[in-house]
Amino acid sequence: MGVPPHMFETTIAGSLPKPPWLAEPNKLWPQWKLAGDELAAAKADATLLALKEQEDAGIDIVTDGEMSRQHFVHGFLEFVDGIDFAHKVEMGIRADRYKAMVPQVVGDLRLKGRVHATEARLARAHTSKKLKVTMPGPMTIVDTVADRHYGDRVTMAMAFAALLNEEARALAADGVDAIQFDEPAFNVYMDEAAGWGIEALHRAIEGVKVTTAVHICYGYGIKANTDWKKTLGAEWRQYEKVFPALAKSRIGQVSLECRNSKVPMSLLKLLDGKDVLVGVIDVASDEIETPEQVAGVIGEALKYVAKDKIVPCTNCGMAPMRREIANAKLSALGKGAELARRKFA
Q1: Which of 43, 56, 66, 239 has the highest CB neighbour count under 10 A?
Q2: Reported pTM
Q3: 104: part of which helix (H) or strand (E)?
């Protein structure tokens, strides 16, 4: 029997490590090495390199690697009026899991112009693969800024959602195939996520005619996150609260963490009807997965998710990783999915 051509299409959560000539390596908040026109040119070069590395690894739905952003949230906020970056304040984020210097919302929020047009159009012009662009979700943005204007998290989230919607519609017009909203905050504020968190996502995707996704993980492989995971016990059941609400939502795909996590795979059945981006690559470990291990996670997911709904993915973004490790993991993802296609066709 032949292998279905679109079975187990692979993708990544979003980010890849930046080359050392672009930004400080192995950092989540790296400083740029260049400025002005030289920085813009270097971001473009890095974007093309990220596309090539994904294509070489056999990734089917590629991203720009988030090469043009210093950080996945602040890369969006830099294009928003009403935010003061000059007077950052220290704030505990993700329920005080760690401290960060964050900008302040000081007025009504408006986009200054397009946010990701440059990199999206560049990527679209240079790959024939399906293209995904990621943006921070409204709840996670609200959890990563200090509010000095709205006085209410939900009101502020809806204001950000309107801006995300404006950019999402424009990205769809640019030829992007999928738009993903990153919501690690959904694993922290589970009750709110199932309520106004999803309502804000619905506002963000209003009128968007391409595939939509939400990424909910347990964070990058940084110490604050790995230490937090150690406190979560033998089973991580945070997804259990939000998955039923997501299954009823208008979001098309849900991206989650599976490899080397303590998430019971049986929770995936709560996402019945959705495409599930199954995290088969651990971004918190430098150990390179084997194709057999990747296929093994896919096989476990198959017990609870229809095979045409599984999209093998990374657990989270790879921005802080060493580039050679990340590229080896990309290769493992591509080879593991190919093995799974043969094994489970």
Answers
A1: 66
A2: 0.94
A3: strand 98-111
